[in-house]
């Protein structure tokens, strides 16, 4: 019989804008929260100070005594095998020993690190649009493009916690240089800033409010602006090519898409599904379903907890990440 004293996981969701934390139970409920802005332009110790402040606030919650582990979903690259992070948008952290620093502050509790795309995948598989699916790709399409995989009914983070990072599959072999060092990456074409950049370069004009974001481009596309629509069509093509490549490689059955760009709705999803038919042509890849994510801004926290619970075997009988 369930009691109100089940084990909890302390979850951290670390990005370039904010550091969020929560205590998560075996139903995916967030029982306590804390948050600080990320001092992304400061040195590594200052950034860690913000993380420590979140941990300290969570540690003051009445439920902290029930915490059995810490799960971290971080902007990447991450290296779970070494416990280090090197977020592109946090230059003060390069090969930063985040797992060791967090463990030192939580009394030696086990700490599990994954990339933020993998955390979102864990959340959507446990509580969201990929629930019950044995093989799935889940993606975050926002300022960047990240992702994660569920294979054989279980989260598959890979040795370093980065498996499924679809944003850096090259889909245009002679395309623009990507900050990662490759060319023509999905992220270079389909991320929000690149959708806006391409529309502006092609002659799209922002409205009177001067909003130059991908959301403004989406609004223009919905209103019939051909240039804005073409930029989203190009993003959809890149995403479709990446999803088809993934489906061909590991036979996924569903691709779940979240993040700010997914908020464009059918401006993105309609051409994506259409172009996916052009790329996923083999019989075992042709049936991939494309769905919007369901969990929103809490996905990183829920997923960080789920990833830790799966790896450590917590929450017996309700283990997240299994189908």
UniProtKB/TrEMBL annotation:
<protein>
    <recommendedName>
        <fullName>ROK family protein</fullName>
    </recommendedName>
</protein>
<dbReference type="InterPro" id="IPR000600">
    <property type="entry name" value="ROK"/>
</dbReference>
<dbReference type="InterPro" id="IPR043129">
    <property type="entry name" value="ATPase_NBD"/>
</dbReference>
<dbReference type="Pfam" id="PF00480">
    <property type="entry name" value="ROK"/>
</dbReference>
<dbReference type="InterPro" id="IPR049874">
    <property type="entry name" value="ROK_cs"/>
</dbReference>
<comment type="similarity">
    <text>Belongs to the ROK (NagC/XylR) family.</text>
</comment>
